[in-house]
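Collaborator request, handled under Task 6.
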Amino acid sequence: MSILLQAAVTGPSASVAPVGALAIWLALIANAAKVAEVAVVMYGVYKYVASRGERRAAEKNAAELARTAANYQAWQVVNSAQGKGGSGGRVDALNDLKTNDVSLAGVHLDGAWLEAVDLRDAILARATFVKANLKGAVLERANLEFAALTDANLMAAKLGDAYLKGADLCGAVLSTSDLRGADLSDLRGWQQNPVDQLRQDRRRAERPAGLPRMGAEPWGNGRGAGNRARDGRGFLPGLARRVRAIDL
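Structure tokens returned to the collaborator:
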């Protein structure tokens, strides 16, 4: 009888102990899960930061590849149109190459229709523009050293501060072009066509008295080719002795 009473007294306490232990284990497991979750998040942040440099390098390589492909396509347009008249998409192609800082030295653009093309600051040394239409072209600060501009139409072209040393301007039309600050030293092919010179002399003689003059006389004083442009529109005095610049 005493044994049954003892079991009745101690029974509830004995059953509570396993329940408390289970609760503790469950709490430990929950805490471990939270710790694991934080660890996973921290690992993700670490991987993101560590791979940022790799992503930047990959993006840079992708951009470089895209730029190279664009330049290759632009050169295909320019080269496939060599010797052909018209634009042939060369205006946009040349603009793209210039924007990508690609040198255009030695490019062949003979007979090309490049009206109003924007090639300011472009490297065009030894490029050929024989009989090309460059009317209204923007060539400010362009490097045109030893470029062939024979019979090119440069009417109203902007050549301010352009480097034209040794360029061949034989027969080029430079009416109303802006040559202020341009380097015109050692120009080639500067001899005036005798027929054009006679035509200019005749028009000069027929000019009505009192007609206002706009800028310098195109037949000027014939000083050396190294002189800089001095009048308001950039005409070089005596330039007509070197190029065909009819501005009447």
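The cover message to the collaborator said: "Residues 98 and 122 are 6 Å apart (CA to CA). Helices lie at 2-80, 90-99, 194-206. Please let us know whether this matches your experimental observations."
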